Every structure is written in C-alpha cells, then in structure tokens.
Amino acid sequence: MVVCGLGPAGRALAHRALAHGMAVTAVDPAPSRPWTATYAAWADELPEWLDPDVVAARVSRPVAWGARRHELDRGYVVLGTTRLRNALDLTGADVVADRAVRLERHAVTLASGRVLTADRVIDARGIARSPTRAEQTAYGVIVDASAAAGIEPLFMDWRADNGAHPAAPRSFLYAVPLGGGAMLLEETCLAGRPALDTGELRARLLHRLRERGIALDGDEPVERVRFPVQGGRPGPRSFGAAGGFTHPATGYSVAAALDVADTVAAGHNAWPPSARVVRALRAAGLRALLALPPAEVPGFFDAFFALPAPLQRAYLSGRTDLGGTVAAMRALFAALPARSRVRIAAATSGIPVRSRGQGGSAIME
Prior knowledge:
Helices cover 29% and strands 25% of the residues. The chain is of the alpha+beta class. It has three domains: 2-127 and 231-265, 3-Layer(bba) Sandwich (FAD/NAD(P)-binding domain); 135-227; 273-364, no CATH class. The strands form five sheets. The protein has a seven-stranded mixed β-sheet with strand order 6-5-14-15-16-13-17, with helices on both faces.
C-alpha cells in the first residue's frame, strides 16, 4: 500500500496497515513536521486500538450556548498532538519525503520524477481550498488555565459579547483544556463561503475575553485555523478529509478517520450506502445552516442542543446511522421557528437562497 499524506488520517491508515502486516510506503513532503492544530473528539468515538494515553484532557460534560446554556451529556476529549503522532507509529514503513503529483490506481508519480507502484494507492492529502467550498476559520490563544478560571469548557458559545455587529456573520467561542495547565480559547467561524478571516476573529476574541474579565499579556501562543468543510471523494482510493470524512457541521474528521482506519487497511468498504446517504444529508444540513440569517443562528443551536442526547450523537457521530440522522434532522426541523423552517426547507431542497450565512455573503444553489 502507498499512502499519500501523513496528517492524522494518513498516518492512522498507514499505522493500521502495518498492524495488519502489510508493506507500506508513506509519502509526504515533510513527514517529520509537527502537528500544530488542536484535535478533539467525543470520548465514545475513539477506537479500542488507540492508546488511551493520547488523550491530553477530558471534559465529562461540556457546555454549549445558543441564547441559553446546555450541558451536554457526553464526554469530550482533547488529544495531545505529539502523543497522537507518536502513538501512530510508522516503524517498518518506507517513509518517502517527496510530494505526490499524480495518483493512479496502482502508481504514484512524485515531484522528483520517481514512480511508486503498489496494489493500493490511497490519497490522504486533505482537501484543497477553493472559492466554491465553504471553509471553517478560527483564531485562538493558549493561556494558563488559572487566567481563564471564569470560563468553563465550551463546545460552542454563540452569545453576542464579541463586539460583532448584530447583522454580521456569527462566530462562537470554543474553550477547552489542553492538559498541563493550559487552555485554548478560540473564536471560530463554523462555516462560511467566504469564511471570516482570522484578523476579524482575533478582534472578536479579544473583545469577548475583555468582556469576560480575561486579561491577556500578548505573548500567548496562537492557533490559526482555515480548512474546507466541503469536498473530498468517498471511495476506496481516498481517506480522511480527502475521502469525504469531514463533518460539515463541526469540521471534525480525525475521529472518523481513526474509527475506520482498520476497516480501510483491511481492504473493506468504509462507504456502505447508509454512509453515503448520511453524507448527503449532512451536506444538506450545511446548506441550511449557511442560509440562516445571523440573528437566527443561536436559536438553531438552542434547538439542536435541546434534542435528546441519542439524537445529538446520531447527527454528530453516526456516520452510517441513517435512521438516527433522519430522526435528528426531523426533530430539529420541528423544533425551529416557522421562519427558520422556511429558509431551511428552501436551502435543503436546492432552491437558491441569498443569505450572509456564517462567514459572509453566500448564495446556496
């Protein structure tokens, strides 16, 4: 097997292929580069084979805010990036520091001109940015947990104390412990086409933290995030974000990749019909979210986080749970105000809807 791309998804697949006794070649332009993003997951998403020591911090009941507070009945974990990378050991693989420029079914052409051949070639290089794809953006600072003592762990906080104009695209605060006495405070544009830029998100974050009495000294480590939440091609020749594993409602893909790495390494189908339909429904959900005016966004998430925990879990994590996903979407639709239902029905049906969305002007078609 040749795996192209050694981010968390590609490295997980290569690691599990080695565990299955396969010969593996892994290709990446900078295979030793450190991972700088923060990766998190719901605790029940992690596969049994994964070393539990990769978890750097745990939150037993994270909180979400729309216009009101919701305590989520589901454990949440933040992964240590260095721990995760080390746990996905590639001892025994042929690691090639080069860039894959052409992928075929049984061959990979590298930038150097070298051609690698294998029974299986898997693209795990992520998704290229494009103006046609909605993106998630974020700007965060890492602070000593004692400096953020007034902020509880937050999965999403959509309250309007970040200084943004009421008619401007919305962003939320994400606040999680990182372990070792550190905490990430991050202003996030969930999805936009175009998404809010990190300069705007920085200004909003600093305003929000001042409003909550959190003082920064300006020397805090910074995390900047920008990646597409649309794209990828499900199928046997792609994996991770490149393979369509990104959840458009959260931007998460790492936990899904870890969960099915064994399945794909063993040569089994990671995309049964139910998974493909769920993916299409999630894409419709993203269209619906982008169609909402900013003022209606907190109410949308209030309705979602008021759903029974099994329905929340089905929509957020049930990649093959068609029945649960449909039930969650139906219950959410019924719980929304009539004006939001009209917009969502139009957007999910493919009727053009003009809206500022969550990150700028967008026409959903």
